[in-house]
Amino acid sequence: TEPLRDTRDRLALACEVFDGEAQPQALIRLGLNAIGDPLSALARRSVAETTTFNLN
Asked: What one-character DSSP code corresponds to residue 2?
């Protein structure tokens, strides 16, 4: 996911994609890079750092 930090981008998605009914918080890109394109250099965190479990 890529966080939508820019308020303007978040509002544009909310209005144009979700008809103002939702506020997107992240953008998920699916698919492969074009042949020869480098992989993105985003930092990755472990599952333990990003996930909580409620066993109740």
From this structure: E
Q: Is the per-residue pLDDT at 1 higher than 60?
A: no
| Residue 40, burial from CB neighbour count under 10 angstroms (0-12, 13-18, 19+) | exposed
Q: In the block, which residue shows the tokens 């409620």? A: 54
Burial class (CB in 10 A: 0-12, 13-18, 19+), 53: exposed
What is the pLDDT averaged over residues 33-45? 77
H/E element, 27 = strand 26-27
Query: What average pLDDT does this structure show over 28-56?
Result: 78
20 contacts 14 by C-beta, under 8 angstroms: yes
**Three-class SS state of 26:** strand
